[in-house]
Amino acid sequence: MDRWVEESTRYRGEEEPLLLDFVFTKKPEPPPSVQYLSPMGRSDHVTLELEIQKEDGISYRDDYKKERD
């Protein structure tokens, strides 16, 4: 597994910034693009925006749900 979040993700007042939010993938290629954006609302966590490229030829199990019921 590869971890893609490398910068601090929680900023609270005068406290030391912390790396608390993580994104893991099983396949390292191609690496996702990670952007660190302003928090939403009153959150003290940054917003993470990821762009993950879909791999061509992906196959899913027959019982895999692509949508919620």
Task: Explain what you see.
With 69 residues, this protein is mainly beta. It contains no helices and 4 strands. It has one domain. The strands form 2 sheets. The protein has a two-stranded antiparallel ribbon. Strands 3-4 form a two-stranded antiparallel sheet. The protein is elongated and about 50 Å long. The model has no long low-confidence stretch (mean pLDDT 81). This is Endonuclease/exonuclease/phosphatase domain-containing protein.
Element layout with pairings:
Layout: E1 2-3, E2 24-25, E3 33-37, E4 47-51
Antiparallel strand pairs: 1-2, 3-4
Structural class: mainly beta
Low-confidence stretches: none
For the sheet with most strands, the description reads:
2 strands, antiparallel
Q: Give the proportion of residues in helices.
A: under 10%
Tell me the overall shape: elongated
Q: Over all CA atoms, what is the radius of gyration?
A: 16 Å
| Total strand segments | 4
- N-end to C-end Cα span: 30 Å
What would the average pLDDT be, to the nearest integer? 81
- The main sheet orders its strands as 1-2
Structurally, how many domains make up the residues? 1
Instruction: Kindly estimate the percentage of residues that lie in beta strands according to DSSP.
Output: 15-25%
Number of helices: 0
| Multimerization status | single chain
Helix and strand sequence: EEEE
